[in-house]
User: Fold this.
Amino acid sequence: MSLANKLSAERRARLAAERLLELKQAELSAANRKLGRHALALTKQIGETQAEVETFRDEVATVRDENERVKSDLTVAHEKVEIAERRLWHSIQTIQDGFAFFDADSTLIGANTAYVNFFEGLEELVPGINYARILQLMTDEGLVDTGDLNPDAWRAGMSERWLEPNPEPVVIRMWNDEYIKVIDQRGHDGDVVSLALNITATVRYEEQLKAERTRAEAANRAKSSFLANMSHEIRTPMNGVVGMAELLTDTELDEEQRLYADTIKNSGEALLVIINDVLDYSKIEAEKLILHPEPFDLERCVHEVVMLLQSSARDKGLSMLIDYDLFFPTRLVGDPGRFRQILTNLVGNAVKFTTSGHVMIQVTGIPGDAGENCAVHVTIEDTGIGIPSDKVQHIFGEFNQVEDERNRQFEGTGLGLAISKRLIKLMDGSVWVESEEGKGSCFGFKVNIPQADGPQPIPPTLPEGLRNVMVVDDEDANREILQKQMEQLGLKVTSCNSAANALAVMNDDIGLVLSDHNMPDMDGLELAEAMRTNGWSHMPILLFSSNPRSAQNDPARRHLQGVLQKPVTRAELFAQLSEVQLPLPQEAPVPTTAGIEASDVDNSLTSPIEPEEPATTTRKARIHIAVPGADVSQPEGPEPNSTNTKYMGPEDNSEPEPPSATGANLPLCKETPRRMRVLAAEDNKTNQLVFRKMVKDLPIDIKFANNGMEAVTAFAEFEPDLIFMDISMPKMDGKEATGEIRRKEAESGDHIPIIALTAHAMDGDADGILAAGLDHYMTKPLRKALIHEQIANHCPQDAEPID
Ligand code: ADP
Assistant:
């Protein structure tokens, strides 16, 4: 091989090597560049990761710090909780009452020593024990006195209570006579906190108080009983004093003697009122006063009270008005004696504290059916001195009165209203007063009492054609009541405040005149005369009089259809209205000719029940002229509701009077009639004397019995027509004696009227007396007029009549 070849080969080899080198260098550069880029990216990545690590490190540091803080806080909190728990527990331990808490499964979580001590060191009583087991331990170990309950029943009761959402506190009596009051409070999640208070001291104190209260009440009752007995004892001789004084005033006395006798009588009566108040009050205090409900007539009761007080009212020139709702029942069930007492007090006060004007009693209410309750609402209004507003409540207290000059001109004990209030409360009612000083007062009370079975007064069937009536009364209140009543009956009313006014407005439309008796200038009787002479010859006129006896005796009586006692009872008013004889149309008015007495012409028409006229003539004339088509076959004799004898008292016409009440039915008999026989059973000699003197002028034979046994004997031997029976008598009291007499009568079928004489309410209340077979009762002191009235009312037909 040539050198050139060799050189060329070598050169070629060298060039190839150089190219390979260049290639490798280029590859190397490319790899370097890639590596550089990679290194750069890696560096960047490392930088970022490093930053993240830094941040993380910071965060870790922060968290670590926080952890440290929380840990320390927790330690502090834990320490605090421990302190609080320790203090709480310490407190719970120091309280002397038992304290325990249970979880929702009734497992004891903890209890203080006091609680544990109730269990007398029972080892079982530790946290973890169940409530049911605690109850079991209490009975098994005899820790609790279960009283009347057996242990099972006691536990059952306690468990039942425990499960209630809000268990009521319960008092447990422990074996050692200590009393524990257990109060359990259930939380929302079912936990129960139980508090056991030792209330032994309180229970002992209460027992002591109760014993002392019982002792005090017994002492108070004893005091009231003593007072009641004393006042009862004082009454007996006082009855003698008052009775004798009354008799003395009936004898011939000179002026001075009469003054003395009247003073004794009035003072005695005033003292009796005080004694009665004290007696009643002591009875209420001694809880001896009970109500005796029975059917009674409230309207009649109101009228009786008004009649009783009418003379005092009349003396002062006061008018007494009754406005008893026309459609309200009158027969109710209540204690009539107590109703009378309340009314007497309230109406009596109204009269006492009123010097001019009127006293008005209003009765309204909501009726029920027979046997059902009626709401009775009674008000007593007066135009008297009134009561200062700051004293209105005060006066209902015991012995409380208005202490001012005007008020204390009047006597009184200050007990009346207190008694009335207690009585009304006893009836479950309420009492109130409204008053304006100087203007008047209005006392009211309401009670709910049943309506009695049986008929109630029903509004009258008015005569056909009666549309318009005239009411004449100078007194506004009176006129308004009557006007209201007439309007309630569907009548049109022409209202006049004087007789002159009545005459001026009288007209053909009017079918009936209702006139007051006593009016200034021209009274009701003069008005009747004037009507007749003015041509109203047949106009029926009813006169309302507070003194009907004088009206009955007046010559002008013949012009009247009837005379009614004022205030009039509803039954009386209804009876009179349904008897009104309307004038025939052509008869009114017929002016009378001068010289001819209207009364001569009209007597039979306008005064059909004229007492002095023979009944037959009167009735025939009336039937013939005034009531065409009336039943002429009516039997002769006094009619029901006849007007000649019925106006004198508040009698309810619905109840028939005893046949001989007025002596009107006496047969004409030429022989001298026998004398009525009256037996009086009375152990007190003074009362016997008073009684004897009171009836000495009557044509009767009187016999006295000193006790009930003598009364029974005298009943058989003396054959009395009437017996007055004292209730409290030695050997046999009045009720027993009456029972004995009634038994004897059962064989013969007779019934002798027996009237009880009672010393106020002490000897028994009305229904006890009536239940014993007595027919009626009167309270002492004996009143001559009332005794005469009773004797007259029961005078038999074959005996000499009593005037
Ligand atoms: P008494 O009338 O015996 O004083 P009450 O208890 O009946 O006792 O009345 C107490 C007092 O109430 C009376 O004293 C009187 O001051 C006052 N009072 C009662 N009713 C009226 C009345 N209608 N008008 C004015 N004051 C009255």
